[in-house]
Amino acid sequence: MGTSTPDLDVRCDKVADPARHGCVFHKYKPTWVMNFKKTPAAVAHAWLIQSKLPNHPGSMTADKPMKYLPKADKNQHNRDPQKNRDVICPSGWAAKNGHPDTTVVTDIAPNDTASCDEFAYAASYNSGGMPQSMDGLNEVASGDACVQSYATRVKQGEWHLYDDERIAGPTWQEVCGRSSMSSWINTTSGQLLRRLRRRGQVPPIGRGRVLGQVPRVRALRRRQGNREVHRP
């Protein structure tokens, strides 16, 4: 079955899950809309990386869909997505190296702590942690090569994403982002996508776009004394 529109081409197989085989529109690019009202810091980070970096991971505007990396026994390289995350966000990174002005939302989650948010996602071939030898698109040696930022709540309902002034500013030629932010916000922002993956509703080698409502962030900001300097 097929038409002149590639998005409507159908492929049927049972490779991804023999127990739940079926058919997919394998060229269709699903779009996941992130919830800016609920998780503003995570959406701002995704928006910044999509908009400012030359590879535009997951951007609908630039037509740069992400390529999903399923769990190890479902991908041809037997690559555990956690290994990608370990490259960009090593265990304990936020506690040891995250910016001290990172805001945690203990008013929502009493045990909330700072965490490391990476973009593009670890479970994608777009992740900076995915080796080029395994079809990775943006390999870097470590998360230190990514744009570095942190999220601060200035007042209730208003969040700012800041450049980490402890290190050199971004060149905007980076291929990934790493941000220190609330663990609750970081985890909550990806819950829907994780649920869809567990249900098998994301194609095993699918392409998708992550679309966030455009936050009120014009550019990454760098604090200098009491001033905020907008970086182009």
Description:
- This protein has 232 residues and is α/β, with parallel strands linked by helices.
- It has five helices and eleven strands, in the order βββαβααββββααβββ.
- It has a six-stranded mixed sheet. A three-stranded mixed sheet has the order 3-9-4.
- The termini are far apart.
Major beta-sheet overview = 6 strands, mixed
Structural class category = alpha/beta
Give the strand tally: 11
Q: Per DSSP, what share of the residues sits in E-state strands of 2 or more residues?
A: 15-25%
The average pLDDT score comes to 82
What level of helicity do the residues show? 10-25%
Core attributes:
single chain; 232 residues; alpha/beta; 6-stranded mixed β-sheet; 3-stranded mixed β-sheet; 5 helices; 18% helix
Short structural summary:
With 232 residues, the chain is α/β, with parallel strands linked by helices. The chain has five helices and eleven strands.
Q: Mind sketching the topology for me?
A:
Elements: E1 11-13, E2 22-24, E3 31-34, H1 40-52, E4 66-67, H2 81-88, H3 93-97, E5 114-119, E6 147-155, E7 158-163, E8 177-182, H4 183-189, H5 191-198, E9 207-212, E10 221-224, E11 227-230
Parallel strand pairs: 3-9, 6-8, 7-10
Antiparallel strand pairs: 1-2, 4-9, 5-8, 6-7, 10-11
